[in-house]
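[Automated response] Your request has been received and processed.

Submitted sequence:
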Amino acid sequence: MEKALFSPPLSKQRVEFVVRHINELHVTTLVISPPNSLVHLWKILFFIAKMHFQVDFGCGSGSLLDSLLEHPTTLEKLVGVDISRKGLTRAAKSLHQKLSKKSTTQTNVPTDVLYDRSITDYDSRLYGFDIGTCLEVTDLTSWTFSIVFLFGFS
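Generated structure:
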């Protein structure tokens, strides 16, 4: 097995970057969606509107959601979106364990929701969020789709 080129791993650096920026922006709602890949510069994307609600596209097994529950944030709602039921099942188990261990005084996130969806399908439940994140979503999509996806929410 080859030695990792980055320490900490890039996946951990991405999550830490997102958590830091969410806290700086005082966001209250987050939606997280499926992990995919295209242009590495676009791995973490923010769609900023009112700074009160967020959506993250590409949640996979919920690593960003888990990290957000471990840190104090202004988030009031976490939403994860992924096309992989296996990933969503892992995310649901992990989030349930974390939320059941924390009391409501330890976390200000009263709601977490996971949607089994593709980001290419219209879903009105994903509109109205102030910030959206995509960890690696654009790496597996075409340039055309990435541009339409990115600017379709602005």
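Summary generated for your ticket: The helical segments are 10-25, 63-70, 85-101, 143-152. The two ends are 42 Å apart (CA to CA).
If you did not submit this request, please reply to this message.
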